[in-house]
Write a structure and sequence with these properties.
Elements lengths: L15 H12 L17 E9 L3 E10 L2 E8 L6 E8 L3 E7 L5 E8 L18 E8 L6 E12 L14 H16 L3 H6 L5 E5 L2 E5 L2 H6 L1 H4 L2 H8 L8 E2 L2 E4 L4 E3 L5 E4 L3
Antiparallel strand pairs: 1-2, 1-8, 2-3, 3-4, 4-5, 5-6, 6-7, 7-8, 9-10, 11-12, 12-13, 13-14
Helix pairs in contact: 2-6
């Protein structure tokens, strides 16, 4: 029997225009209005931030801390290719990152502040620590800087070389490949491929009734009832890379789909 897999609360939708406003605001923000951020108590954890660089470029940033230094990767939603970054926290209130190419050459720099309150209201009136980063990004050989807004989506134990160890997975590339295949198949309504990427039996809730699907033929027969327009949209907008993981599995998006250690789907959370 499948275990009950929880969800992560949705954040407020991103408004790209507010990136520019927030960037100007935090450039003038006094130190007293900034948060004090430290990751030192969470060694061995990965922190996943979602947000934007510029007005339209959606990104996910994954950070980990070791001996006061930050390392990580980020990718653009349109490319799904990790870009290496390294950095540090300055005075507990701001961070500086350097972006590197495959040879280790520094190609861009990011500087940001940790605000005491989320300028977009995603965390309500909650006093923040490391949950939001607002700043700017620029290429080393370019004067123009782009505004950046990042919001912490989740944190999970793991390393940059084995992100999904907590879920029992040993091959990050396999997980990413199958998560991408599943998302694309759902987006394109490729029912056969979707059915082939599921670990059976799997339980789904239809019309308020829990139903066990025992194989690909049953899944395809119930496909339109399972993959409603809203559910397909939730899957299509999720990022199938650097996902959050728990001992129960690996989450696509906010838990709409869960993958097992072999990269196959073990839960479909339609509600």
């Amino acid at each position: 029997m499948r275990r009950d897999l929880g969800r992560i609360p949705m954040r407020a939708p991103i408004n790209p225009i507010s990136c520019i406003v927030a960037g100007l605001y935090f450039a003038m923000m006094p130190i007293s209005a900034r948060a004090i951020c430290t990751y030192s108590h969470f060694s061995g954890w990965l922190f996943h931030y979602d947000g934007t660089i510029g007005e339209k470029s959606r990104v996910r940033v994954t950070l980990t801390e070791s001996n006061g230094e930050l390392a990580g990767v980020y990718f653009y939603s349109t490319q799904l290719k990790d870009i290496q970054i390294r950095g540090r926290i300055v005075d507990g209130t701001r961070t500086v990152f350097e972006e590197m190419d495959s040879s280790g050459k520094i190609t861009a720099r990011f500087e940001g502040d940790f605000p005491g309150r989320d300028p977009r209201g995603g965390f309500g009136k909650e006093k923040l620590n490391c949950e939001v980063i607002v700043g700017s990004w620029h290429k080393i050989d370019a004067a123009q800087a782009l505004p950046v807004y990042l919001s912490l989506e989740n944190a999970t134990s793991g390393t940059l070389t084995n992100r999904y160890a907590v879920a029992g997975a040993k091959d990050d590339a396999l997980i990413h490949r199958r998560a991408y295949q599943f998302r694309e198949a759902v987006t394109k309504q490729d029912k056969t491929t979707v059915a082939s990427l599921i670990d059976y039996p799997i339980e789904v809730r239809l019309a308020g009734v829990q139903k066990t699907i025992r194989g690909p033929k049953e899944l395809i027969a119930q496909y339109d009832a399972i993959f409603s327009n809203a559910y397909r949209e939730a899957i299509a907008t999720a990022l199938p890379r650097n996902m959050s993981a728990r001992d129960q599995g690996i989450m696509l998006g906010n838990g709409a789909v869960w993958f097992g250690a072999n990269g196959k789907v073990i839960a479909l959370n339609r509600e």
